[in-house]
Amino acid sequence: MEPPEMINAGELVLKRWEPEWAAELSTAVRESLPELKPWLPWATDAYGLAESSDYIGRSVDDWAKGAEFNYAIFTTVGELIGSIGLMTRMGPGILEIGYWIRTPYSGRGHMTAAVTVLTRVAFTLPGIERVAIRHDAANAGSARVAEKAGFAEVSREPGDTGRTDVIREHQPV
Ligand SMILES: CC(C)(COP(=O)(O)OP(=O)(O)OC[C@H]1O[C@@H](n2cnc3c(N)ncnc32)[C@H](O)[C@@H]1OP(=O)(O)O)[C@@H](O)C(=O)NCCC(=O)NCCS
């Protein structure tokens, strides 16, 4: 099971992460910290080139192992505007989508478009019957993206430190 290394999504292009993008990733995360910190535990004030290089390194390894398929999101003119990935951690037959967007590019429908296209790709992969999104119940932005991309709530589970996570799934396409 391996998705394409590059996916065209209209105004966006998803490309498997490459080490040479580490500096731009660090810049993108740092300028988005106020929006990322409440929801993503790795997004801290200490984030820098070491962390972005480490993330890309792990993404390269995880892709090779078939554990995670992480993509940088670019505009068609080459601006790096976020990240999205498919994770196998929920078990066999199901892929979970995770994502974040670079703050100056938020609110333009980009993540809804990226999630929609990656969901379609996920359902083309052999053995994949379910595609899910897990988000903090208090994360209204992520909830709305998931809802607009066609993901309906299927359950709730305890999250980190007293929080509640919403699990959503998409009907097979
Ligand atoms: C959530 C996030 C990915 C949204 O990305 P985006 O590209 O701005 O989303 P879109 O432009 O596709 O917006 C889709 C819908 O969500 C709504 N939305 C976006 N951010 C929102 C927020 N903070 N609160 C409420 N609604 C929000 C938009 O208004 C839009 O709905 P509408 O068309 O009904 O107006 C982005 O805010 C982000 O990266 N957040 C921090 C990281 C995160 O939470 N990742 C997900 C972890 S599960």
TrEMBL record:
Pfam families for this protein: Acetyltransf_3
Domain N-acetyltransferase: 23-173
Top-level taxon of origin: Bacteria
Gene3D superfamilies: 3.40.630.30
Keywords (A to Z) from UniProt: Transferase
Keyword Transferase: yes
Region Disordered, residue ranges: 151-173
Basic and acidic residues composition-biased segments: 154-173
GO molecular function: acyltransferase activity, transferring groups other than amino-acyl groups
Name used for this protein in its record: GCN5 family acetyltransferase
Organism phylogeny: Bacteria, Bacillati, Actinomycetota, Actinomycetes, Micromonosporales
